[in-house]
UniProtKB/TrEMBL annotation:
Protein name: EAL domain-containing protein
Origin superkingdom: Bacteria
Parts forming coiled coils: none
Domain EAL: 24-274
Length: 288
């Protein structure tokens, strides 16, 4: 009986796998279509300076409005695009869009674009980015690129050479999701990132966990000594923000301040925000 059950389980399992594979294939085909139909678009989440609550930059986050399945998150379709070889093309489209949108905002607001490891591996990233900057007219110093540790580990030397080229153009390079991957402190020896983003998992564990606090403290110390700004992502509560200010984070991003917004809302946000929420006591303390 156990055997029969076991076999039944395997059978169901493989039927499920079949269904899953078919579903994935369908989604893959949809993704190809979505790219040309402009179903994939960007929203922008404000990032604020701890010292005065002013917006300094926004992070471009990709969204997919699927005609029948509804919204599909980037955690699903970015890996899919990577696996089926679309990511270079999609990444370039999104970069172009982000640079174009940024031209509609006050010029002190930078735009941060996430890079997939595969975009760098494709080899002509710095050339592509230069082309996009030329075509759109966005000054290079208004562009930031967010790279993850995964990007760095695959081919360390080539990656850092490419990142140096980009930085030579005036683009800022940020280390994203720091602490969740295979962080190696030696990367900081090899390359000076302009900013480090502390992963939101550390921020959300902040109050219950002493170890998260210790890790954040260590990253901030490292950042300070190496001249890197420290962005805390996923800040959801005022308590978290105040603790992060005490610890010395230089920038904040999270639902406490704003969810990702449409491009047309950024200019308005930059005018109203510091009056409404910024300049907390904690933020003032940092400035002294
Ligand atoms: P990420 O680069 O670490 O982006 C931050 C994620 O945290 C975003 O999720 C954002 O919506 C979310 N977030 C921001 N504030 C809060 C908060 O207070 N609480 C919580 N719980 N979450 C918050 P999203 O937009 O779902 O993006 C997920 C990931 O997908 C990104 O993580 C990034 O790795 C990737 N991604 C998004 N857009 C792109 C893109 O255009 N290109 C590439 N290559 N990857 C992208
Ligand atoms: Mg990011
Ligand atoms: Mg991140
Ligand atoms: Mg993340």
């Amino acid at each position: 009986r156990a055997k029969a059950e076991g076999r039944g389980t395997v059978c169901t399992f493989s039927r499920d796998m079949d269904a899953q594979a078919r579903d994935r294939q369908a989604l893959e085909a949809d993704l190809r279509a979505a790219m040309s139909a402009n179903e994939i678009y960007l929203v922008y989440q404000p990032i604020l300076a701890a010292e005065n609550g002013q917006i300094t930059s926004v992070e471009a986050l990709a969204r997919w409005a699927h005609p029948t399945r509804g919204q599909i998150g980037p955690d699903v379709f970015i890996p899919l695009a990577e696996e089926c070889g679309f990511i270079t093309q999609l990444g370039e489209q999104l970069l172009h869009r982000a640079c174009t949108d940024a031209l509609g905002w006050p010029s002190h607001i930078r735009v941060a674009v996430n890079l997939s490891p595969l975009q760098i591996q494709a080899g002509r990233l710095s050339a592509t980015i230069r082309e996009v900057l030329d075509q759109t007219g966005l000054p290079a110093d208004r562009l930031q690129l967010e790279v993850t540790e995964g990007l760095v580990i695959r081919d360390v030397e080539r990656t850092f050479i490419e990142l140096e080229r980009l930085r030579a153009l005036g683009i800022q390079i940020l280390m994203d999701d720091f602490g969740v991957g295979y962080s190696s402190l030696s990367y900081f020896e090899r390359f000076r990132f302009d900013k480090v983003k502390i992963d939101k998992s550390f921020v959300s564990n902040l109050s219950p966990s002493q170890s998260s606090k210790a890790i954040i403290k260590a990253v901030i110390g490292l950042g300070r000594d190496l001249g890197m700004g420290i962005v805390a992502e996923g800040v959801e509560t005022r308590e978290q923000m105040e603790e992060l200010v005490r610890l010395g984070c230089t920038h904040f991003q999270g639902f406490l301040f704003s969810e990702p917004l449409g491009a047309s809302m950024i200019a308005g946000f930059s005018q109203t925000f510091p009056k409404a929420v910024g300049r907390s006591n904690a933020a003032r303390r940092v400035r002294q």
